[in-house]
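Predict structure. Chain length: 257.
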Amino acid sequence: MEASPPSTATTVRRLAAYLRPHWRAQAGAIIASLLVVAAGIPVPLLTKALVDDVATDGRLELLPLVLAAIGILAVLTAALSILRRYLFTRAGTRAVNVLRAHLMEHLFRLPLTYFRRHRRGEIVTHFTSDAEAVATAYEQSYGQGIASAVQLVVVIAVITVFDWRFGIAAVAIVPVYMLVPWLNRRHQARASRRLQHATGNLGGLSTELVAGTRDLRAFNAESWSLQRLRRSLREVLHAGIYQGRVRGWSEALPAVF
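Prediction complete.
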């Protein structure tokens, strides 16, 4: 009987153990995210001054100052965004390298029957595609999630300052954005596992076909091999479409509200 896959909470706890030694880089990335949001706060006020004071009232002496401030904030935001991406990528890549080393140690302890049941390409996929997917998920989910959360809090605070009723309405909408991904989490996990499984099968088949090219040509089995490859490619295509459809629902439903 095949063991059930670990839950999301278990996976997060395991990844946290690899990310914990790199807390300095993550803390720096979080600070950079805060500064990016802070640098974007004056932009609407500067735009308002550009339209109302310069364009409408004709105060042209303010034009150089407003444009200089907007340019400085744009350069600062770009620099901080690059720094944030660098720090998150650095921590994620180092953690994934340790994960790959531990995975190799684990493979060395497995019985030989495991290697007879699984293709070499499928095993290699764990070191390439799967580990890279972990790094990408960390950067997108953790890195962008923190930046989005900070930006949401700042925007709600600014809206509340201008009108407390709009602030209450914004707070009331927040649970919708949190509820939809939570309800769809099982479908997202299933779609991710399906795509990883299809990608692993494709990697194993590709390694098998490349290694056995001489024998396949000797027995005129190229057509049969291409049929197997096309079936595997269709599995990857359908798994990718399914994952895109699930992600689309997760992104589209909150936008309705």
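Summary: Confidence is low (pLDDT under 50) at residues 1-5.
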